[in-house]
Each structure stands twice: as structure tokens, then as C-alpha cells.
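Figure caption, in words: inputs first, then the predicted bound structure.
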Amino acid sequence: MSTQSHNPPPPPCAIVIFGANGDLTKRLIVPALYNLARTGLLPERLTLIGVDHNKKTDAEWQGAVKEFLLGILKKNGEALDEKLWGQVARRMIFLSGGDFEKTETYQRLCECLEAEDKKDSLGGNVLFYMAVADRFFATIAKMLGEAGLVSSEAKGFRRVIVEKPFGHDLHSAKALNACLLKYLKEEQIYRIDHFLGKETVQNIMALRFANGLFEPIWNRDRIDHIQITVAESIGIEGRGNFYEKTGALRDMVPNHLFQLVAMTAMEPPVSFDAEDIRAKKAELFKAMPTLAVTDVVRGQYDAGTVQSEQVVAYRREPNVAPDSNIETYVAMRLKIDNWRWAGVPFYLRTGKRLNIRSSEIAIRFKQAPFALFRNTPVDELDADWLILRIQPDEGIRLRFNAKRPGPAMTLESVSMRFNYKDYFHQAPAVGYETLIYDCLTGDATLFQRADQVEAAWALVEPVLKGWAHTTPRHFPNYAAGTEGPSAANDLLAKDGRSWRDIRILGGK
Ligand code: BG6
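Bound structure (6-O-phosphono-beta-D-glucopyranose present):
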């Protein structure tokens, strides 16, 4: 099967990576470029310019990222295709000792870009990628602005990719947006939420809007509630310093989980134009009342066994305070006050060191009336569920009641499954391919606008403030390798509902 895409390749350009020596560049950006080359979606003329504070030659930088890529390919049982690699690495330049905070770095960058443009006819197109710690975002935007590198008068496009976190709360998100918008126009800023790069997340729009079947029942008349789960079995992966300042709520909710809510719940846009979709998402966030502390449960993992491996408690992880009150799990009830969703709760949960890695959106439909079955051995009707599997086992499941064969009318809940892998050949991907391709072609559909980011922080703000003043009483409150704290069950029990069993997520 051909892995070539039907889309045209992006125009020639330079990609400037700030943080060229970092993990993100090696683990995701360069492998994504390599995968774009496989599908014919890399610009025909591409110059990669790496900026970082270390001293390195161009060849050393190229060697380092290539070696990392070789490792990734080897893990997948693949060898490097030198021809494809040649397309990625045809011009790789490293601005050695490029301190992000020094004007001199940007002068060198200007000269380098001008020279490359002349040599390679790049049309003046430049994508700046901030693959750096968030404390540098504002500085780099300012320096780029002052050096005239992101002027909208420039010959080609000038776009900037910003990675999460976009702030740590509403105040810092507003300050960051204000700073970015001082030097850049909103349409030049591409705020990446890597969840939107996942095929299955993008497929939510196809499922809802390319089929006549679902939209008529996608509302409070037919849906009882929705559960969104992003369960992780990994811990904090050596990121103690980061996690101690972040916690599960900031790390996952205003970005990844809210984007899943938005894709599931937004009104149909009038077109797939980025602005139309962003407008619908913004409207949805406006319809959500801010969260109350009583609607949110937090948890922290204790020692335990995850998939037969003994793991330590969060408080024993490196660079974590022995009395840390940072949450590694969060569950919440969210309301959407609009015509479509009034009275339909959205329950969200995410956590580290749970017993399984599994992400899904589970839509529970209202129960059928029992009347017809009252004189049969059936004593309860299961509700129907539509389950959108995000990862792993990407696909869609529909659970419904079927008659068990035999003389008596007995029922059993059965499942119809669509698995992506059974239908589509998926080219190897790290999840950044679509996002980078979209930036290079100027499609902002999958990126967050400033107002969305701020609206999301505003929703969780009362909880962040409330938690800052109260000490969680029973931390740690769940053992690693379990389903999370029991208080999360109480949250749904209050509404007469229960979570889908994490152990069977994906299975049923
Ligand atoms: C990141 C978080 O944004 O998303 C991590 O910082 C988390 O803590 C990760 O593990 C989850 O993403 P994925 O794609 O691995 O499910």
C-alpha cells in the first residue's frame, strides 16, 4: 500500500528550532519530519536551523539527532532510509552557543536566514519552533520581534509554534498571550496541544459531522452522560521538578482533556475553516460554568504494583518533596449550559500510575423503557454506550443489548467494534506529523487560539485557588496500579452513576 499522501507538500521554507539539543527536537520534531518525508509531505527545499546554548558544529548536531532517530527506528524494527533522511538533513545548520536571551543570537540568525534564502530560494518562509522551557517563550517572542524576524511585512510567511504549558493559571496565561501578541499577530501563533495531533481525536469530527446517524442523537434527549478518561500507567518519568510545580490538573485538564470535551461537544461548524471551528470551541467554553472545588477530586499515588512492576510512591520519586501535596490524579464533573447539553454531566478523569494506559470518550445513552420486558426473566436493561477509543486500540465500540439464544427472553450486552488498524494502513507516526504539516501550510484548525487558552484556565481557576489554601487530607490516597482514589467513585455515586471499570476500558 502506498504511504504517499494526496496532499501537496508545503512550500520551501526554513524551520528554526529553539532548543535544538533538547528532548523534544530529538524525540518528536526530527522523527516527525522524517515521517513527513516518507509520505511526500516535506517541503522540497528545507533548511533546518538549530539554536541552543551549547557549542556544537553542524555535523555534530546532525549526528546527534540522526543517532536518536536510528534508535527510534530500530525499536520499531526499521532501518534508516538514507534517501528520506537526506531530504530532512539536506541543510542542517547549528547556531552554536545561541543564547536565547542575547541579541547577538538573533543577529546571527537574521544573517543565516538571509544567506539560506538566497542560496536555496526559500521564499522568505520561516517557521520558528519554540521547543524550549516555557520560561523562554516571552523572551524569544520579544527578541524575534525586535530583530524584525516575525514582521508581517516579511516576504514569506513567519509563523511561531509554541508548546504547552501556556501559562500556569489564568493570570500567567493572559500575561503570556499579551507578550506574544505584542510581537506577533494571532494568525502567526500556533499553540500545540499534541492531543489534537492524534488521529482518533481528529476522527471525532469525522464521526460526528460526516455521518447522518450520530448528530440527531448527540444531545440531552438521548444522552445520559459522558465519561472521558485519560488513564496512564506511567509515573512522572523523572520529571519531579516539573511535576511538583504542575500536578495533574494543570498538566492535563485545561489543555488535553478540555480539547477532548470541545471536540465531543461543540456545535457543528459551518465549515472546516480554522476560524469557524475555533469559534464553535470558544462558544462551548463560554457555556461551561466555572468548576467548583466540590466538583473535583484529587489524588496522589502511593507505592504499588503496576503491571507486575513494584513502583514507589509519588512522594519517594526523585525531586519530589517527601510531604508533597501535588495531585497525580484528578476527576471532575463538568456542566455545559446550552440547549444541546443542559443536564448532561461530563465526567473527566486522568491520573498517573493507574492500572492501565487507556484513553477514551464513553457516551452513555439513556436507557430504553423497561415496560416491554417486565414479564420476562430480564430484571435490568443495560444502557447503550458508544465508546471512542483514543489510545491504544484506536477505534470505536458500540455496546448494546442482544437476546441471548434460547427459549427465554434473556439479554446480554454485546459490542460491535471498529478497529482502525483493520481498515487503514497507518504510516509510522510520532503524533506531530499532522501538526507540523499544518503549520507549514498555514492551517490553524488544530491549534489553540488565545481566547480558548484563557477560557480553559478561567474554568479551573477556582479549583486551583481553592486547593492552594487547603491541604488534601488523605494523601497518598490510591495505590499505584489501581483505579485511583475512591473519592472519584463517590463523585459519580452522588449522581447515581458509576465509572466504567478502568480494567476493561478498551476491552468492552
Ligand atoms: C503531556 C503531559 O502533555 O501529555 C504528560 O505533560 C502526559 O504528563 C502526556 O504523560 C500524555 O500524552 P500521551 O500522548 O503520551 O498520551
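The first strand starts at residue 13 and ends at 18.
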